[in-house]
Amino acid sequence: MTNVISESGMDFISKNAFRIEESLLYKELGEEIKSVEFVRILKEALIFLEARSSFPDPKSSTLGNLERFNSQSEDVCDKFIHSLNLFSSIKVNVSDYDFPEDFVLPDKITLVLILVVRNHDNKGCREIKTKLIELFPTYFKEIWKPTVYVINHMTAIKRKLAVEL
Question: Does the global pTM surpass 0.85?
């Protein structure tokens, strides 16, 4: 299939998507700036999507698992915040970069942050979502009012974000 973005063992629909992680601007910024896989417009939703093949279970008795869970949660939060900042800098012409021609923004949007973890169960997804919301700075939540989803690959397919492999 040619109209997909393949990430973390999943194929996502690429219609009206901006591969922010692949942009020259992002690549020029260096390692301190983190990015989600892509930004996609779906109706009036501005979706920032991060994909992971797995995510640690905070309740696992495996040594260091809670630390890995916390670290990966912080990493995902950074990716969402950095990507929104980068995207916004392009939109308001602070950065000398243009969106792809086929990337069309609606006049009014709702900010949606989605983490897709390939084979995670729904309970584990809820735990990750709770942690992410807890980690987002208050100013970020109050200014942007994001809707946050943590879903697995099957749910992403049902919501028409991804396709079956």
Answer: yes
